[in-house]
Amino acid sequence: MPQASKIALVKELIDTAESSLRSAKKIMAELVGGSSKSKKSYSELAETLPEASRDGNDKIVEGVFNGEIMTDKKGKEYPVPANYASKSKLVPGDVLKLTIKEDGSFVYKQIGPIARKRLIGTLTYEDGQYKVIANGKAYKVLLASVTYYKGAVGHKATIIIPELEDSDWAAIENVLPSDADDVTLTD
């Protein structure tokens, strides 16, 4: 690995450590009575959605994706398959429609994508979770996305995050080739 790449990797590792400290401070604040900005705003967004309804024998529920799950108007949580979230490049704040079929199967559809922006960062793995370090922050990403794009620790990845909201999660748009060290992204 060229020296410039090693320096960039060390910088990203330092950023990861700093991000871990910020995350620990955030968790501590939540434990002593604070709340997460992104969780609160996603809950508030979910409260504006319509009540669950019926379409024949199917139940229709709308909710907001938070990076892992969908939360409906009443705060009930529904699991979103990681493969669907990864393939659809869902980001926190996206509005989903869930059709619960008569046979109990779940069919999700993205109906309200939130405004997005793209960043390029370095893929890392810490505390049992893949993350992409971009702009000095560690964003959690789904394992399904990492495996689909054949990502590995140290690879550069393009991620999608909510444009206006603070988020702990990102969607991987692509993993860049190993020789793409000098790629930058401008808005």
What this model shows, in words?
The protein is α+β, with helices and mostly antiparallel strands and 187 residues long. The strands form two sheets. Strands 1, 2, 3, 4, 5 and 6 form a six-stranded antiparallel beta sheet that branches. A hairpin with an 8-residue loop joins strand 10 and strand 11. It has four helices and eleven strands; from the N terminus they run ααββββαβββββαββ. The two termini are 29 Å apart. The protein folds into two domains: 92 residues, OB fold (Dihydrolipoamide Acetyltransferase, E2P) (Beta Barrel), CATH 2.40.50; 76 residues, OB fold (Dihydrolipoamide Acetyltransferase, E2P) (Beta Barrel).
Task: Kindly summarize this structure in a few lines.
With 187 residues, the chain is an alpha+beta fold. Helices cover 28% and strands 34% of the residues.
What are the key terms here?
187 residues; alpha+beta; OB fold (Dihydrolipoamide Acetyltransferase, E2P); 2 domains; six-stranded antiparallel sheet; five-stranded antiparallel sheet; 4 helices; 28% helix
